[in-house]
Amino acid sequence: MITTLINEQLINLNLKATTKDEVFAEMADILVQQGRVADKTQFLADIQAREELGNTGFEDGVALPHAKSAAVIKPAVAIGVSRSGIEYGAEDGLPSKLFFMIASPDGGDNHHIEVLAELSSKLIEDGFIDAFLAAKTPADALSLLLAEKQTVATLPQDKGLLIGVTGCPAGVAHTYLAAEALEKAAAELGYEIKVETNGSIGVKNSPTAEEIARAEAIVVSCDKQVDMARFAGKKLIKTGVKAPIKDGKGVIQQALVAKPFDANGDGLEDGESKVSKARSDLYRFLMNGVSHMIPFVVTGGLLIALALAIGGQPTDAGMQIPTGSMWQKVLDVGVVAFTLMIPVLAGYIAYAIGDRPALAPGFIGGWIANNGSFYGADAGTGFIGAIIAGLLVGYFVRWVATRNYHKLLQPLVPILIAPITGTLFIAGAFIFIIGAPIAGLMHTMNTVLTEMSTGNVILLGIVLGGMAGFDMGGPFNKVAFLFSVGMIANGQTQFMGAMACAIPVAPLGMGLATVIGRKLNIFEQSEIEAGKAAGAMGLVGISEGAIPFAAQDPISVIPANVLGSMVAAVMAFSFGITNSVAHGGPVVALLGAMNKPLLALLCMATGMVVTALVAVSLKKFRKAKADKVLAVA
C-alpha cells in the first residue's frame, strides 16, 4: 500500500513552518500541487477535525496527521521534515520533526489505517527515524521507506506461541506500533506470536480458541475494554498500550512468568494491596464509561449549542427556537445524544465490571436513574446516579454470572439470566429504595431555598451557586434552577440572574483548566479534547459539558465547580443582575435578557477563572502526591 501512495514529489525535507498549523498548511500545499487534494481549505478543516479527537503527535519527534476527506482526489502520503522542530503537543513533550500527512478519500477504503500499520513497522526499526532525518534528498528518504524490512537476529521460532492484544483509545497509531513491537520482540526471543489489534476499523486478527489454548502466555497491552474471559487459565500480563513500544522483550518476559489469569479472581498483581487494586479498578471502570460517554456529550452539546446560538430567541419561557424551523430539528437531534449520554455512562461502567451480560441492565439502570418520573422526583440523579447504577449493576451481574449453574442453564446465563436479573435488580433499587430519598431530598431543598429567599442574598448566592455547580443537571442543579424559574413568575428575576451566571461556570472553567493544565500533564488527552467542547457548551449555558471531568475525577473537579459557581452567583446578587428568561450563559446576556450584560459576563468570567485555577491546583497536588507514593514504592 505505502509504495503506491508516496513519491519523491510528496517529500519535503526542509519545511519552513514554525507552528503546527503552518505545518498542516505547507504539507497540504504539497498534496494540492501533486493533484491529490482538490480543496485545500476543506482538507485542512478535516485534518483539524481529526486532531480535535486526539493529538497525532507521538514519541521520538514523529507526528502522523491524517484524515478521510471529500477533498481528497487520490490517496497519498505527504512527508515533511522540520530541522528545528515544531511544538506539536506530542505526548513526550518534545518537538516534532518528522511528519507523515495521510490523505484518504472520504467514503473510500481505510487507507490511513493501512498506511499507519505499514509505517509502524518502519518507525519501530532501530535507527530508522535518525536515518530518515539525516537523508539529504527526497530520493534518499524514499529509498529508506521502500527498503526491505530490516532482518533482526532472531532465534528459531520453536519456543511456542504467544498471543498479543493491542489497542489505544483512538484506535490508530499506538495500536499498530505496539503490535509491531510485540512481533519484533517475540521473533528475537524465538517465539511465534499472533497479535489482535483493536483499532478504529474494528478488531482484526483475533486468535482462535485453539490458538489461545496452546499459547504459552498472553500479553494484553490495551487502554480500552477487551474480552478477557477467553484467556482464563493462561499466563497473562496486562499493560498500557505504550509498554511494548518501550520494551517489548521485557513485557513478553514478564508474561512468561506471570500467574495464570483468573477471570473471577481478585486480579491482584504481586505486591499490590487490595485497596490499591480497588482504586485502580474503580478508575478503569469509570474511564470506560467516560470514554464512551464523551462522544455523546460533545455531539449533543455542540448541536444544542449551535441551535440555540443561531436559532434561539429569549422568551419568558426561556431560550426558544421557532417551532418547525431547521434549528429545531438540529436541537432535537442534539437532545437525543444528550439523553443517551447518562445511560451510556452507566452501561459502559457496568460492562467494564460484568462484561457483556451487564451492558443492557447498565443502560436501563442509567435511563431510570436519569428519569425522576420512575420514582416520583422532579429530576433524575444525573451522572452521579449513573455511576451508582453502573457500579451496582456491574458487580451484581458479575456475581450472578459466576454462580454454579446446571450445564443446561449455563448457556442462558450471559444472554438471559444475568441481563434480566440485573435489570430487575437495578430497577427495583432505584424505584423502591434509592428514588424515594432523592425525591424527598429535592422537596426539602426546594423548601429551604424558599425560606431563604427573603434572607441574606450573599448566603443565598453561595447556596444557589454551590447547587448549580455540584452535579450539572442532577437533583441539586435542577432544584436550584426550578426554584429560580419559579421566582421569575413572582416577578423576582434576580434569582435567575444569579443562576444564569453560575450555570456556565463549570463547563467554561473546565475548558479553561485544560488549556492551563495542558503542559502540566494533569489531564488525559480525551479530557483536553472534551475541554474544547465544554467551552462551546458553556457559552450557551449547557452545564453538562463538565460532566466528563467530574465523572472521571470528582474529588478535584466538583469542589472547583462549586467554588467557581458560588463566586459567580454571589457577584451577580451583589451587582443586582436580573434575568427574565429560564436559561443561562453568555448567550443570554448577549441577547439582551439580562439587565446588566457586561457585569453578568464579568461574573461568569470570574467564576470560570476560579474554577479553572482550583481544578488545576487540586489535580496538580493529587498528581504530585501520587507520584511521591509511586517513588517510595
TrEMBL record:
<keyword id="KW-0472">Membrane</keyword>
<keyword id="KW-1133">Transmembrane helix</keyword>
<dbReference type="GO" id="GO:0022877">
    <property type="term" value="F:protein-N(PI)-phosphohistidine-fructose phosphotransferase system transporter activity"/>
</dbReference>
<keyword id="KW-0762">Sugar transport</keyword>
<feature type="domain" description="PTS EIIC type-2">
    <location>
        <begin position="282"/>
        <end position="628"/>
    </location>
</feature>
<keyword id="KW-0808">Transferase</keyword>
<dbReference type="Pfam" id="PF02378">
    <property type="entry name" value="PTS_EIIC"/>
</dbReference>
<dbReference type="InterPro" id="IPR036095">
    <property type="entry name" value="PTS_EIIB-like_sf"/>
</dbReference>
<dbReference type="InterPro" id="IPR003501">
    <property type="entry name" value="PTS_EIIB_2/3"/>
</dbReference>
<dbReference type="InterPro" id="IPR013011">
    <property type="entry name" value="PTS_EIIB_2"/>
</dbReference>
<dbReference type="GO" id="GO:0016301">
    <property type="term" value="F:kinase activity"/>
</dbReference>
<dbReference type="InterPro" id="IPR003353">
    <property type="entry name" value="PTS_IIB_fruc"/>
</dbReference>
<feature type="domain" description="PTS EIIA type-2">
    <location>
        <begin position="4"/>
        <end position="148"/>
    </location>
</feature>
<feature type="transmembrane region" description="Helical">
    <location>
        <begin position="358"/>
        <end position="377"/>
    </location>
</feature>
<dbReference type="GO" id="GO:0005351">
    <property type="term" value="F:carbohydrate:proton symporter activity"/>
</dbReference>
<feature type="transmembrane region" description="Helical">
    <location>
        <begin position="558"/>
        <end position="578"/>
    </location>
</feature>
<dbReference type="InterPro" id="IPR002178">
    <property type="entry name" value="PTS_EIIA_type-2_dom"/>
</dbReference>
<keyword id="KW-0812">Transmembrane</keyword>
<dbReference type="InterPro" id="IPR050864">
    <property type="entry name" value="Bacterial_PTS_Sugar_Transport"/>
</dbReference>
<feature type="transmembrane region" description="Helical">
    <location>
        <begin position="598"/>
        <end position="618"/>
    </location>
</feature>
<dbReference type="GO" id="GO:0005886">
    <property type="term" value="C:plasma membrane"/>
</dbReference>
<dbReference type="GO" id="GO:0090563">
    <property type="term" value="F:protein-phosphocysteine-sugar phosphotransferase activity"/>
</dbReference>
<dbReference type="GO" id="GO:0009401">
    <property type="term" value="P:phosphoenolpyruvate-dependent sugar phosphotransferase system"/>
</dbReference>
<dbReference type="InterPro" id="IPR003352">
    <property type="entry name" value="PTS_EIIC"/>
</dbReference>
<dbReference type="InterPro" id="IPR016152">
    <property type="entry name" value="PTrfase/Anion_transptr"/>
</dbReference>
<feature type="transmembrane region" description="Helical">
    <location>
        <begin position="383"/>
        <end position="401"/>
    </location>
</feature>
<feature type="transmembrane region" description="Helical">
    <location>
        <begin position="285"/>
        <end position="310"/>
    </location>
</feature>
<keyword id="KW-0813">Transport</keyword>
<dbReference type="InterPro" id="IPR013014">
    <property type="entry name" value="PTS_EIIC_2"/>
</dbReference>
<dbReference type="InterPro" id="IPR004715">
    <property type="entry name" value="PTS_IIA_fruc"/>
</dbReference>
<keyword id="KW-0418">Kinase</keyword>
<keyword id="KW-0598">Phosphotransferase system</keyword>
<feature type="transmembrane region" description="Helical">
    <location>
        <begin position="413"/>
        <end position="438"/>
    </location>
</feature>
<protein>
    <recommendedName>
        <fullName>protein-N(pi)-phosphohistidine--D-fructose phosphotransferase</fullName>
        <ecNumber>2.7.1.202</ecNumber>
    </recommendedName>
</protein>
<feature type="domain" description="PTS EIIB type-2">
    <location>
        <begin position="162"/>
        <end position="257"/>
    </location>
</feature>
<feature type="transmembrane region" description="Helical">
    <location>
        <begin position="458"/>
        <end position="483"/>
    </location>
</feature>
<feature type="transmembrane region" description="Helical">
    <location>
        <begin position="330"/>
        <end position="351"/>
    </location>
</feature>
<dbReference type="Pfam" id="PF02302">
    <property type="entry name" value="PTS_IIB"/>
</dbReference>
<keyword id="KW-1003">Cell membrane</keyword>
<feature type="transmembrane region" description="Helical">
    <location>
        <begin position="495"/>
        <end position="513"/>
    </location>
</feature>
<dbReference type="Pfam" id="PF00359">
    <property type="entry name" value="PTS_EIIA_2"/>
</dbReference>
<dbReference type="InterPro" id="IPR006327">
    <property type="entry name" value="PTS_IIC_fruc"/>
</dbReference>
